[in-house]
Amino acid sequence: MNDKIIQKLRKIRTPYIWANPQNCIACWKCIKACSANVIAKKVFLWHKHIYIKNASRCIGCKKCIKVCPESVFSENIPDLLKSLLLKKGVDISRINADIGAMS
Ligand code: SF4
Ligand code: SF4
Questions:
Q1: Ligand nearest to the CA of 52
Q2: CATH architecture of 3-97
Q3: Ligand 1 centroid to 6 CA: how many Å?
Q4: How far is the centre of ligand 2, averaged over its atoms, from the C-alpha of 82 (Å)?
Q5: Residue 44: CB partners within 8 Å, gap ≥ 6?
Q6: Alpha carbon of 60 to ligand 2 centroid (Å)
Q7: Cα–Cα 20 to 30 A to 61, which of 30, 52, 73, 90?
Q8: pLDDT (0 to 100) of residue 92
Q9: What is the band of 96 on the pLDDT scale with cuts at 50, 70, 90?
Q10: What percentage of the chain carries pLDDT values higher than 70?
Q11: CA-wise closest residue to 28 among 58, 55, 64, 57
Q12: Closest-lying ligand to the alpha carbon of 63?
């Protein structure tokens, strides 16, 4: 997997959950719910959304999945992302290993 893809995946993946920030409405409920300080805010002038800041701290409690009103988080890779990565020739089964144990 190339470095650009690895850098992008580190912002949307922990060992336990995936995030699809495109659907985020910036209510910040997940940030309050995540006691491990895994999720952070990305604030632009024209848009706000979450990203994964500390993937390796995720404990897999899944509170983010429960509180998010827009289903941003999931246990499995989102279908659209999966098909994009497959088109780029990424071996989905090796993602965690390729991105360095989510460091
Ligand atoms: S709870 Fe969902 S919609 Fe709200 S900030 Fe977190 S990811 Fe975005
Ligand atoms: S699974 Fe738990 S620890 Fe991991 S990002 Fe979600 S709320 Fe935080």
A1: 2
A2: 2-Layer Sandwich (3.30)
A3: 23
A4: 21
A5: none
A6: 5
A7: 90
A8: 86
A9: confident
A10: 96
A11: 64
A12: 2
